[in-house]
Write a structure and sequence with these properties.
Layout (H helix, E strand, L loop, with lengths): L26 E12 L11 E3 L11 E5 L2 E5 L5 E2 L1 E7 L6 E7 L15 E2 L3 E5 L2 E9 L3 E7 L10 E2 L6 E7 L5 E7 L12 E8 L4 E11 L12 E8 L2 E8 L7 E7 L7 E2 L6 E2 L12 E10 L5 E8 L12 E6 L1 E3 L2 E3 L10 E3 L20 E5 L12 E2 L7 E4 L2 E5 L12 E6 L4 E9 L8 E9 L2 E10 L2 E10 L8 E7 L8 E8 L2 E7 L6 E8 L5 H4 L6 E7 L4
Antiparallel strand pairs: 1-28, 1-31, 1-33, 2-27, 3-4, 4-6, 5-29, 6-7, 8-10, 9-10, 10-11, 11-12, 13-14, 14-15, 15-16, 17-18, 18-19, 19-20, 19-21, 22-23, 23-24, 25-26, 30-31, 32-41, 33-38, 34-35, 34-41, 35-36, 36-37, 38-39, 39-40
């Protein structure tokens, strides 16, 4: 598996330093980390020449795509998780491999103490004249910026800030004459007439000067049908085909009213005429009781293939209840049909298929076969061979120093005073929950010395909504405990849900497990391999759903250590 390199010297482990041992003061050693998942939709089998949706499961929202020759590159939002803006590669649009992260070193951005659903919003990737561009917004941490790279694996440049580009969701379009144009969501030209009233703007971008030039103008105010008071036009992209400029954008917010609309013009700066059969993608208005629903579809990006096919990546969600989902917004794929000169991703009233005919494209290289896969049921065992963690693992906000090491099958994590619930930078590394039914287990070696010391597994949606199972020290005793925080009114350290005394010798391993089944969570531990004791069954996992916890992220499953402040 290709590994990410966090390159700042501050985070680099000393060359001659050995791996941190489990017995080091206030250090937790994790090994045997295994994730396994499946979904009810797995019963729908894909036949020869077909693919499964979503193509990239779990918390991979706001997909943006670009093609360079026969290669496709995808980028997604990560908000205040780090490293951020994952870059995936594919040659067939179906099998994706993460090759890097565009935000991979401290100093590029500062997430401060922001909530996990702030920071880097919807990125947009494009390629022009040998250079890759990503436009992005750091919400509450600087505004809109541009980064570039010759190789999408990185390194990506430090941000070039764009102070004249306001709002969010900026993207860059290069016309046939080489001129660049930035489109973005921002406040309307006059006073907003209602909540969610926004506009899509355009301004020229000079790639040599690395700044915007010329006048700004409005391409879309309110939405394609202003009489309905449409909300949140965002995620705009421009593409050119057959002499027409097409503006596509999301409308209706990112929940169940989400949709994608299209407009076109003979001039890049407009005026743009809406497609009278918009939206070109939505799942709103469909029966709520339909089996295995997919909802909230929108935020699409359209790409062509070398032989003239057209495809769209977009976000949608897979709820297990009434708008309840823990896996976050995911990346889906559908073909684009051109009808009377307009791009249509899915006709109104049709449901997004879990299985569909795959693009007729060459398969991805065996050297880049996803490990683990990004779609369908799978099991992924992390070997922790080091020296870096997998590209897909993330921590909360941006570390200012290296408090972990990876070597010889072990992830060693320093138990620091920063806490998950404290809007800090805690000692946590995690991977996405990618299935409705998922199990994560690991072995921990940790000796809690002071009351408040803890180390174990976590399921995290935000600082205010998380679950923990692991070793703790309380009242002078060592316990195995389940804790949860389900809102700002709960203590930052979480409430005790279940606990039992446990007696371990120095260095003795403890096995831990979290099992999620839709909105239910089970927590177990074991002293002997393969022998589990349930500590808490049927816990309310809906607290990790977007509907209850809010925000834009999905559940992250991983390891965590905390050392009580002395």
């Amino acid at each position: 598996m290709i590994r990410t390199a966090i390159t700042l010297a501050l985070l680099a482990a000393p060359a001659a330093a050995p791996s941190v041992a489990w017995a080091a003061p206030n250090t937790a050693a994790f090994s045997n980390f295994v994730y396994q998942g499946s979904d009810p939709s797995d019963a729908i089998k894909a036949g020869p020449g077909q693919y499964r949706n979503p193509v990239v499961q779990g918390f991979y929202p706001d997909p943006s795509i670009t093609r360079v020759g026969k290669d496709y590159y995808l980028v997604n939002s990560t908000f205040a998780w780090f490293p951020g803006l994952p870059i995936h590669h594919s040659t067939d649009l179906v099998n994706w491999t993460q090759i890097g992260n565009a935000i991979d070193r401290p100093g590029m951005l500062d997430f401060k103490r922001l909530g996990l659903s702030r920071a880097v919003f919807a990125p947009a990737i494009t390629h022009h004249d040998g250079l890759f561009y990503i436009l992005n917004t750091c919400v509450d941490c600087g505004g809109n910026f541009l980064i570039t790279a010759k190789d999408p694996r990185g390194p990506w440049s430090d941000p070039v800030w764009l102070p004249q580009v306001g709002g969010i969701d900026a993207s860059l379009f290069f016309d046939d004459d080489g001129r660049g144009w930035i489109v973005n969501n921002e406040e309307p030209p006059g006073p907003a007439e209602y909540q969610g009233h926004r506009a899509i703007w355009i301004q020229e971008y000079d790639p040599k000067a690395k700044k915007t030039i010329g006048p700004r103008s409005v391409l879309l105010d309110k939405g394609v049908d202003p009489s309905t008071k449409p909300i949140w036009p965002e995620g705009p992209h421009i593409l050119k085909k057959d002499g027409w400029y097409y503006l596509t954008a999301a409308e209706g917010g990112t929940a169940e009213g989400h949709s994608q609309v299209a407009l076109r013009s003979k001039s890049v700066t407009g005026p743009y005429v809406p497609y009278d059969k918009s939206p070109i993608l939505t799942q709103r208005g469909l029966p709520k009781d339909r089996p295995l629903p997919i909802t909230s579809a929108g935020h699409a990006d359209i790409v062509d293939t070398p032989d003239g096919q057209w495809w769209a990546t977009f976000l949608a969600v897979r709820p297990y209840g009434d708008d309840l989902y823990n896996t976050g917004r995911e990346t889906f794929l559908l073909p684009v049909a051109w009808k009377d000169g307009w791009p249509v991703i899915l006709e109104n009233g049709k449901t997004i298929p879990y299985v569909a005919d795959a693009p007729k494209l060459p398969p991805s290289s065996k050297k880049e076969t996803p490990a683990p896969p990004t779609s369908g049921p799978f099991k992924a065992a992390e070997s922790f061979v080091g020296p870096q963690l997998p590209n897909s693992w993330m921590t909360m906000r941006i570390p200012s120093k290296r408090w972990w090491s990876v070597k010889g099958g072990t992830l060693n994590v320093e138990a620091r005073k920063d806490k998950i619930g404290g809007h800090e930078q805690p000692s946590i590394w995690a991977r996405r929950q990618q299935h409705m039914n998922a199990t994560v287990q690991a072995t921990v070696r940790f000796t809690p010395k002071a009351d408040g010391d803890k180390a174990g597994l976590v399921a995290v949606q935000s600082d205010d909504f998380y679950w923990f199972v692991g070793l703790v020290r309380a009242g002078g005793k060592t316990l195995v405990r389940v804790e949860r925080r389900a809102g700002k009114n709960d203590p930052v350290d979480g409430l005790v849900v279940a606990e039992k005394p446990v007696s371990l010798k120095d260095g003795q391993p403890l096995n831990l497990k979290i099992a999620a089944k839709a909105g239910s969570l089970d927590f177990a531990y074991g002293v002997a391999p393969g022998k589990w004791e349930v500590l808490k069954a049927g816990a309310d996992g809906t607290t990790l759903s977007t509907k209850i916890a809010g925000g834009f992220v999905g559940t992250m499953l991983g390891v965590y250590a905390h050392g009580a402040e002395q």
